[in-house]
Amino acid sequence: GLFVWHLKSTGIRQIPCQFVHLCRVANDRLITFQYFNFLKRMYVTQYNKDLSQRAKPKSDSVASPFRELQQLDQEKKVIHKIRPISPVHQPLSETSSRNELREIKSAAETEDSGPPVRAESKEDRQWKEMKLRLDDLPGILARLSKIKLTALVVSTASAGFAMAPVPFDLTCFLLASLGTGLASCAANSINQFFEVPFDSNMNRTKNRPLVRGQISPLLAVCFAASCGVPGIALLTLGVNPLTGALGAFNIFLYTCCYTPMKRMSIANTWVGAVVGAIPPVMGWTAATGSLDAGALLLGGILYSWQFPHFNALSWGLREDYSRGGYCMMSVTHPGLCRRVALRHCLALIGLSTVAPVLDITTWTFPVISLPINLYISYLGFWFYRDADRSSSRKLFFCSLWHLPMLLLVMFTCKKSLLEKEDKGDLLGGNHGRAMEITLP
How far apart are CA 383 and CA 339, in angstroms? Predict the structure, then answer.
């Protein structure tokens, strides 16, 4: 009995230890979920190899889609040309195989000729040194000197010479026109030399010769010097020193003041208007040798005309000017741009009325010029009110014909020398009679 009791007591004590040992053995022998998945993958890869993923081998050379389309077209052509061959007619099979070989050879030749074409296109896209030819040099220099703007400058100087109250001297007129044109070419060339990095950002000026590299900067500076020095010498020695000084001052004002101010302040527009107003003054001084009220009046007309002309032009080029880094009224002060254009359109009416008061024209000039001055003022008002591209274009194109029309009317209404001499004699006679009456 004691032995049985001893076995029972020892069994009860060892039950917890045996239970823990059985759990450990069961955990070691049981199949877990991860182990079951591993066995399943092994079974799939070993006994069912069709389900395993296989990577598609890459082709050695990646062809362009255009080449693939060409190859597909060639394959389609080959497929269409293959015909069912009967076992009896052996010559036909031989001819068809020859045709296939020819087509395969032609396809191979086209594939071989593909890379050289692409190489040539890459060579064409590379930078190349532009060679200057003598046949292209006159056109390049004309664009460097802004030949159209130079022609406008010479025409306004000629108008000032023609309006002077002196007899017409053909030699002096030709020398003054040539010297003014050379000075304008020099100023425009130096202006383009300074503005190459800025002109390259603008659509309007990106095709200029210096920007495209058609001419070297050294050659441009030499051309400007070869125009400026003879031009100023011709005006000083061939015409008179006053005209030569005005020409030299205008070159300095355009290249050293107006050009850098375009990227600094909107005051560049007023400085540029002064530059455009000096050529008719030079024409007047070339004829008379002195600065008179008539020269200042002509300069005032050109000064006021430039504001509606340039402000309307710059309004359509605001994106270009902002891209180039220029400080223009149309970009930074659009309201002021429109107001200034309208004011100077109205100022042209007042300046035309002052001409007969200064004894330059007859009183018919303000009457005849009133319609064209009112029309440009009307377009200036529409530009001020609407401020759109259409109104600015209308004002700009009107300014192109307004100035030559106004100068032509002014020349036709110019007072003749006989009228001025008669008026002078009449004033002199009245003064003499008054002296006779006062003397005892």
Answer: 9
